Structure formats: structure tokens, C-alpha cells
């Protein structure tokens, strides 16, 4: 697959104006994205996701390294590179709140070079796709956060670029709207073959939409893997154990020190184990503590657990 985005060892340092302190936000980040690929850019708060996205879309200039979009350098050939990109940064803030849905679309269509002949058809198509028909004349200010977010994504689709960058597209949305936005993104990705980078904390978005994930922690890439391989890598090692009696705090602490227990719920605990033999070790400890096991079941691991584990391992190494 041809790579349309190449991020080559980018490094970004922020300098605080007053104290002159420097802070390395991103350090030697490299990854590539193939044409039509959807990747999830993940990481805990402050990991460097937004800095990476802003560097890709030319809003920040890296201190070292480079980004190329379709072979164009994002600094030296900025305008040429940016022609390929649309971005939704910080959600609905890129909209005019005192204009209606339709007026926003018309304004941004003109702004992004959609020809006068095409504007009407393009607006109608996006209003239908994003199910904004009954809000067409509503001021953005009066829309719900979910509607505003849908409009922000629709605006990003106006220019019909090959690459779409989405920073936290489902942030602050209720479950239902989050599903709807996910479905719309899936539709756009499948039907239009766009290359999409989604920066998010929402693991369901990654599991549902992305083929691959680049995980950043403390400014560096810790994983660049297909989502399905990450899931199967950890699959067999997740267990749910139901106990017949509660553990004392001390026993619980002892177990937590030895095993990556990610969930306690009264008599049930969920644990991810590196090797099958660790389950016997854990059973042994429970037996020594005279805590009988009611049931023990391998569980289907979800992407959230995979992510947490990778970040914890990264922090520990
Ligand atoms: N303009 C700035 N000046 C100084 N430090 C900054 C600036 N912007 C970001 N940082 C710092 O750089 C680090 C990376 O920030 P960034 O916004 O890229 O992280 P993020 O992964 O997007 O975080 P979040 O998920 O919380 O949005 C953070 O520690 C942040 O405080």
C-alpha cells in the first residue's frame, strides 16, 4: 500500500515564555499511513497527540524531522501539502455560532474553493448524509453538541480532500450520538476511501473504526500495530475469576502487587496474564489464602484493556 502520510522522526519542544523552561511534547515520532487507511492515534492526556496532528496539518513546524503528504513536505511545500488535508480540530469551535447550519456550509464551501456551480449539490449531499435536514436553518449556537460535531465533520468534508484528520471526534457526546458519529465516519471511510487519522480517548472508536493504531506515551510512539493483532495478542490472557469469599485488603494488595488486576468488583476480579502458567500461580496464592474460587473464565479482552496495558508497560519500562 502506498503511504500518503509520512511522519519522519518529528520532535517538538514548547518553550514557556516567562520561565523560559522547555518541554519536549513529541520526541522522534515516526509512522506512515497508507492510502485509504484509518488509523487511531491514541495516548493518555498530554501524550502528544494534538501536537502530532497539528504538525501533520501544518499548524506547527517541527523542531526536527518532517511530515510529507502525498510526497509534499508540510513546511517547504505547505500549500501543496495542505491541499490534500481537511481537519476537525477541537470539535465544534471551527464553526460560526451565529450562522445557521446551511450558512456555515455555504461560507466554508466558498472558502475552500468549491465552485459556485457545485455548492448547492454539495451542501444538499452533506446535509442528507449527516442527517441535518431538520436543522438546516437553525443557528449553530442553538444546536446540541452532537449536532455541532456532525456539522464540524460535514464542513471538513466540503473540500473532498484525500486525508481527514479528526481530533477527538466523539468527545463529550452521549452514547447514542457517539454511535451515530462513528457510523458516519465508517460510511465516509468505506464509501469514499479517504485516509483518516483519528486522535481519541474513545477506545470503542478505535476498535470499531480503525485498522491500525499508533499509541503515543510521553511524546514517543510505543506501539504501531494492527488493532486485530493487538487484540489477539492479548486475547487468551484475560480472565475473570469469581471468588467464594471476599479477600481482605491485605490479600488484595498482595495480589495486586503480583498481577495486573484491572478490575475488582466485590467477589469478582479481572486479570490479564502474560503466560498461561501465571493463572496457576494466581490460583495457588488464592488457595494459600484460603479463598476458594467459584468460577474462572477466559474473557474477551476489549481494546480499552489492551491500551491500558500497553501504556502501563511503557511507563514501567
Ligand atoms: N502551547 C504549548 N505550550 C507549552 N506546552 C504545551 C503547549 N501545547 C501542549 N503542551 C504540552 O505538550 C504536551 C503534549 O500536549 P498535547 O496537547 O499534544 O497532548 P495530547 O496527547 O493531545 O493530550 P490530551 O489528550 O490531553 O489532549 C502536554 O504536556 C502539554 O501540556
UniProtKB/TrEMBL annotation:
CDD domains membership: ABC_DR_subfamily_A
Start and end residues of each ABC transporter domain: 5-243
The entry's keywords: ATP-binding, Nucleotide-binding, Transport
Record GO terms (molecular function): ATP binding
Superkingdom assignment: Bacteria
Family note: Belongs to the ABC transporter superfamily.
Protein name, per record: ABC transporter ATP-binding protein
Source species: Lentibacillus juripiscarius
Amino acid at each position: 500500500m502506498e503511504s500518503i502520510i509520512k511522519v519522519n522522526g518529528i520532535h517538538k519542544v514548547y518553550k514557556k515564555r516567562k520561565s523560559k523552561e522547555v518541554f519536549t511534547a513529541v520526541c522522534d515520532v515516526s509512522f506512515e499511513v497508507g492510502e485509504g487507511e484509518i488509523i487511531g492515534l491514541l495516548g493518555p492526556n498530554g501524550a502528544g497527540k494534538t501536537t502530532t496532528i497539528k504538525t501533520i496539518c501544518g499548524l506547527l513546524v517541527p523542531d526536527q524531522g518532517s511530515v510529507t503528504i502525498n510526497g509534499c513536505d508540510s513546511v517547504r511545500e505547505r500549500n501543496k501539502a495542505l491541499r490534500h488535508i481537511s481537519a476537525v480540530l477541537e470539535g465544534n469551535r471551527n464553526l460560526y455560532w451565529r450562522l445557521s447550519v446551511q450558512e456555515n456550509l455555504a461560507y466554508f464551501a466558498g472558502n475552500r474553493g468549491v465552485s459556485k456551480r457545485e455548492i448547492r449539490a454539495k451542501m444538499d449531499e452533506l446535509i442528507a448524509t449527516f442527517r441535518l435536514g431538520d436543522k438546516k436553518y437553525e443557528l449553530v449556537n442553538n444546536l446540541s453538541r452532537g449536532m455541532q460535531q456532525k456539522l464540524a465533520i460535514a464542513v471538513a468534508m466540503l473540500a473532498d480532500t484525500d486525508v481527514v484528520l479528526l481530533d477527538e471526534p466523539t468527545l463529550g457526546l452521549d452514547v447514542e450520538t457517539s454511535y451515530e458519529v462513528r457510523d458516519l465516519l465508517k460510511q465516509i471511510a468505506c464509501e469514499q476511501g479517504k485516509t483518516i487519522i483519528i486522535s481519541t480517548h474513545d477506545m470503542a472508536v478505535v476498535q470499531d473504526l480503525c485498522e491500525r493504531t499508533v499509541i503515543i506515551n510521553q511524546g514517543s510512539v510505543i506501539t504501531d500495530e494492527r488493532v486485530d493483532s493487538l487484540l489477539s495478542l492479548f486475547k487468551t490472557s484475560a480472565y475473570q475469576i469469581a471468588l467464594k469469599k471476599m479477600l481482605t485488603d491485605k490479600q488484595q494488595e498482595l495480589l495486586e502487587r503480583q498481577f495486573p488486576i484491572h478490575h475488582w468488583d466485590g467477589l469478582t476480579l479481572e486479570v490479564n496474564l502474560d503466560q498461561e502458567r501465571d493463572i496457576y500461580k494466581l490460583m495457588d496464592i488464592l488457595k494459600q489464602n484460603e479463598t476458594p474460587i467459584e468460577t474462572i473464565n477466559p474473557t474477551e479482552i476489549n481494546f480499552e484493556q489492551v491500551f491500558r496495558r500497553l501504556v502501563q508497560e511503557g511507563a514501567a519500562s
